[in-house]
Amino acid sequence: MLWVECPNCGSRPFEEYRYGNVFPVTPDTITDADARNVDYAWMQDNIAGVTLERWFHESGCRRWFTAKRDTTSDEFLPLDG
Amino acid sequence: MNEFVETLLDLPWQVGDPKPAYDVVIIGAGGHGLSTAYYLATRHGITNVCVLDSNFIGSGNSGRNTTIIRSNYGIPESVAFYQHSLEMYQQLEAETGCWIMHSQKGQIWLAHSVSTARTEQTRALMNQAMGAKTDYIGPDEIKRLCPQIDLSGGGRYPVHGASYHHEGATARHDRVVWAYAQGALRAGVHVYQHTPVTGLLMDGDRVTGVQTPKGNISAGTVISAVGGNVTTVSNWAGVRLPIRTHALQAFVTNAHAQEFDPIISSNDLVFYVSQTPRGQMLIGAEYDRFASYRQATSFAYLQACSKKSITMFPFLAKLRIMRSWTGICDVSTDFSPIMGETGVPGFMISTGWGTWGFKAIPAGGEQLAQLVATGSAPLIEPFGLDRFAKEAAMADPSSAGTR
Amino acid sequence: MPACEPPRFEGLVGWRIIADRSALDTAPWPAGSHVVRISPDDAFVIGAAEPGVPGDEHAIVTPELGFAGAAVSAEQVADIALHHIEWKLPAGPCVAQGQIAGVPSKLVLHADGSALLLVACAARHELEDRLG
């Protein structure tokens, strides 16, 4: 069972949450304005490792929050760690 | 090497290490990688090809899917492509001489509401227009095709109708991989298992080969047929992909003596059921909503999926879950595959296979081989990576994951 | 052992307030009203009198008829927690939110272990079915 810590409600099973994707980061190497838009709209970093992402506690307080998670183990890590 | 594969099949494996140079190096010896190599060798006479895999052949998503072959997709380009693949599957045993346990069953997409009934009617008409045999059928016909179904859906999900895809089929996943491996090896292709690619060789902007623990291998063209970890490979070449990796879970029950003919999917409940040749009921659903590289099965998933399938098929409640597995799918942002050129010379890609990769193995390999050999493959042209910049994304409302 | 009596829900009349968290912390609630703090900036105030939030001039105060509630005894809370709640129930007094029997619900826990069980009206019958 995967547990997610909601800052308002505490630890709950992950089925109570909705996943809100990672913060999109367009690399600085892409300089053309149109290319940056395409990258922002479609491309994904798809990191195999620690990502900073948004989660929504749908079944609880119904608030979005930021969480740090390792996508290779699905382990949630402390935000300041 | 995998003992199971070796004892069952007489594959003419290469001995020793890969050569220092090939015309084409393919990363990933799954269905797509091996079929690309097979068609390069058999259709285009390009036999100086090497396929590398970090594990044994078919150890990735080719061994972790639900083996459904169908072409009843939601956009014309997809139907044309998958229909071609479906027809190639029908001929694959005759062509390769390998028994892949191909079994035509018909696939039913159930509609439990007026709005999804309309979706299914649209699907049937659009499929017919593109040459796929799909009809809209009513509840009586569904009951005749599948007597086990509860048409009332437990009182909550009454069946309004369904689209019936006559040529929906299944095949044994590892036999498909072995058939292509055997065909490719016999034609002179080199396949090296347990040879991970650890980096790409670059000459300026151009990809010129791959790095492996067995030494560098230079290549005229490098093709990534990697599943799940494709972003790692594309990052080496500096190619940005619209791919997010999700886990997809499925499971089988113990053997059910009664015959269960068709493959049944539900549009509103989002699950699918079919019977394996051993009599086990194979049940799966959509991929996990959050991105993950972890190949883990969750109790919550098994519970939710069991509940949904029992709603439509009460007899399933008496069965037990015997085995479950999880593949990591490279899901593209518009839910269509990505094949062909990447914009980096010498580097091609076959990815975005999300939950629809197995059914595309023959056509995906054939078309990619044609693109390498001749520089043109009209059937997969709409699926190029450049479609996003051209504002021609291929959002498919009928992929298993698009809900 | 006989199962506990299932909770009996009734529609609640109250006010929904979205406001600055410090304003909600210090708001003078009308006498006899009952405040359920859903999140730092979101409160459900049960009671007929319209509450004011002087600390936040942009506060949104609107009638809220979307919740059904049931008073549950300490024994019922323990029974529900045992059979229907996967997460660890905190000690009262506090608001505990999450899925109960798979339905998004809220338990307003009192110090004596009894509670007010809240659920969205749309999911009330579903929760009743699952708890009953």
List keywords for this structure.
heterotrimer, B: 403 residues, alpha+beta, FAD/NAD(P)-binding domain, D-Amino Acid Oxidase, Chain A, domain 2, 2 domains, eight-stranded mixed sheet, 28% helix, 26% strand, globular, C: 132 residues, five-stranded antiparallel sheet, four-stranded antiparallel sheet, 3 helices, 9 strands, 19% helix, 37% strand
Note down, in words, how this protein is organized.
The complex is a heterotrimer of chains A (81), B (403) and C (132). Chain A is mostly beta strands. Chain A contains one helix and six strands; from the N terminus they run βββαβββ. Chain A is 12% helix and 40% strand. In chain A, strands 3-4-5-6 form a four-stranded antiparallel sheet, with no helix packed on it. A two-stranded antiparallel ribbon of chain A has the order 1-2. The two termini of chain A are 23 Å apart. Chain B has 403 residues and is α+β, with helices and mostly antiparallel strands. In chain B, strands 1, 2, 9, 10, 11, 12, 18 and 19 form an eight-stranded mixed sheet that branches. The model of chain B has no long low-confidence stretch (mean pLDDT 91).
Secondary structure elements and their pairing?
The complex is a heterotrimer of chains A (81), B (403) and C (132).
Chain A: E1 3-6, E2 10-13, E3 17-22, H1 33-42, E4 50-57, E5 64-70, E6 75-77
Antiparallel strand pairs in A: 1-2, 3-4, 4-5, 5-6
Chain B: H1 3-8, E1 21-27, H2 31-44, E2 49-52, E3 68-69, H3 76-96, E4 103-104, E5 107-111, H4 114-129, E6 134-137, H5 139-145, E7 161-165, E8 169-170, H6 173-186, E9 190-192, E10 199-203, E11 206-212, E12 215-224, H7 230-237, E13 243-255, E14 263-266, E15 271-275, E16 280-285, H8 299-312, E17 321-332, E18 338-341, E19 347-351, H9 361-374
Parallel strand pairs in B: 1-2, 1-12, 2-9, 5-14, 12-19
Antiparallel strand pairs in B: 3-8, 4-8, 5-7, 6-7, 10-11, 11-12, 13-16, 13-17, 14-15, 15-16, 18-19
Helix pairs in contact in B: 2-6, 2-9, 3-9
Chain C: E1 10-11, E2 14-18, H1 21-26, E3 34-39, E4 42-46, E5 60-64, E6 67-72, H2 74-84, E7 94-100, E8 103-109, E9 115-120, H3 124-131
Antiparallel strand pairs in C: 1-6, 2-4, 2-5, 3-4, 6-9, 7-8, 8-9
